[in-house]
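Re: the 766-residue chain
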Amino acid sequence: MINRPYILVIVLGILLIVASCSGVKHLEEGQTFYGGGEVVFATKRDFKKKNEVKRELETLITPTPNTKVLGSRPKVWFYHLAGEPKKEKGFKYWMRTKLGAPPVLMEDVDIYRTQSLIESRIKNEGVFQSRVEVKTKTKHHETTVDYITYLSRPYRYDSIYLPEGDGKLEKAIRGLKEGMVFKKGDRYDLNDLEDERLRLERELKNSGFYFFQDDYILFEADSTVGDRQVDVYMTIKKETPENAKRTYTLGEINVFANYDFAGTSQANVSDTIKVDSVNYYSDNKEFRPKAITDHIKLRKGNIYTNEDEEVTIDRLLQLDVFKFVNVDIEEMSDDQLKTDIYLTPFKKKSIRFEVQGVSKSNAFIGPNFNAAFRNRNAFGGAELYELSLNTGYEIQVGGNQNQSNGGALNSYSVGIQNTLTIPRFITPFNIDFHSFKYVPQTLIKAGFAMQKRSNFFTSYTANLGYGFRWNETPTRRHELFPIDIDFIQLSSTSDEFEQLLNDNPFLARSYAEQYILGTSYSFYYNSQGKTGRDRRTSNYYFNGNIDISGNLMQLGQSLLNSSSEEPYEVLGYPYSQFARADIDFRYYLRLDEQNKIATRVIAGIGYAFGNSISLPYSKSFASGGSSSLRAFRARSVGPGTFEPDTSQVFIDQIGDIKLEGNIEYRFEIVGAFKGAVFLDAGNIWTMREEEERPGGKFNFSDFYKQLAIGTGFGFRFDADFFVVRLDLGYPLRDPAIETPANTRQSDRNPSELSKIVYNIAIGYPF
């Protein structure tokens, strides 16, 4: 047992080690570390977008100072510890270049160059009378720089003049006036002029001006017209070629369906098939022509638009059967374009084997072996067929695991899954998807899985699904499964598990053999799909799900056979009837390249009715574990103030309602080694009062008093393509009735360290 004085000694020792990493002893006389720079506005009045302008100006400040952790510079320490390696390989070289980084000194900083860049950028923002002064501050062997910026009142747009003339191009530009990036009264900004040129290029290319380029537009600004006002004159370059001033329609369109870069796979004229005015060339008939041409928006006789070209390329790539898609457009005549589309297919069939390290939300980790067969063009219409086999062994890990009654809980599983993905809607009624920017998918799946939990039970699950997946935008995705059927059966249950079910009727009902005849819908939003200037410091993720089961079957059976006794059955087994909804909302705030704040809120509710008195186990909610409340064992929290028997190895608390919130500060330690400090809170509840789990029913008046709260520290090794995570959680508040001291029965120990729950997982928790 470790008492608090020893803990204090350990903490002080760690702080001394950290302090020794400062690297100060390697500084020569007069040298100081560079601590970074900041733009400071010296103005009496506030102005719009002040923080945005400040962030933009601070991107000009270079170099980036060394990363600091608790006042130390661990990368500099590793750099000096490694010394000068004799060759560009080996451990010393790896330590110096990967873990370490050279010290960034104040003498390396060209502050006057940065000062000049900031002044120029401010003038581009419309503040023509401005100046920047530099002030340095040195403290504890570190020098920081303030770029004090004096701002005057900015110039604003007054009159805006567009190109004159009767030419087709001039008329088209004047017709696009309504969508201008800037307008009279806006603050002058050079970026506005650049954005307007890009907008005009995009809009004109979508109006048939194929050869137009943004640099054919010139802007002249006159700042002498009035009190801090600017007149802007837009003109067309005299050197603009004549073909950039004309609109074009699409003439001949050719598709080469099995092209290689050597040009040896182009088909001859005798292999040509005309489909919807498109000439389709293929010498091996691998694809049905219409399955490809349906995704081509470019059509003979239409006015050329850049949007149609981009959608064509995107949709052909989304079929996931072509490695490369190249569209070559050239001038046929003064008003027509010839289009050649070259497609290079992937290899049709492939087999993949992989070994994975798996981490689940219920704290099970272990190796998995997967084998998958893929046919990228199963029936000639770019359909993807996948047959996957998987098997794995898992063991539940986490702090304070009870080792009695057989030790830690483990399981192994075997499964087979068939999935057919068809790149179009397959429905009883016609849905026109040709105008979609993204290729919709119809999914048909069937599978079988077996899982054995040692000393408890073996479960068998068969599933059958038919549904659709489609993207609305780069950030919005939908999934709808009108048919989503699962059949669940238990066998080989142990006496201990049978006794557990007898003692907990609610759990017994959740594990009962049954069908789940479901219909489900999911919506996803992820702002991280945005690119370019839309990529923001703040990002959002949202997932909402609705799941309804058994309603149509129960309605049909009740109408056809009103005398049938409940529960209704299918093929001798009952089926579940419930409605369930949940949301997962996340917000990410990027402070800088090394620091981020991540938050998440989960809320869900489910209600069993009609043919059922409880939700199936797989549809119920649980709390606690490596991706949930990390200060508590997986599925051990709740419901409500109920305290499960922690002497049992098998703890599986489930409920009908869930509310959970997480906040995590993520930071870089050294290289791929990251750290995090987190706070988690949440619980689950039941919809109905249960005798076997008193205190579990949700009550709106005091549910917030029943939240379990935990905090902790995490270590992560982030190698980009995978993340290994260790989180140490400490419970701050446990809502269980029998624990007034806010500690679980198994944790009632005077040692503070004995309450720590460790979670080993793969990937970030959210």
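The chain has a mean pLDDT of 84.
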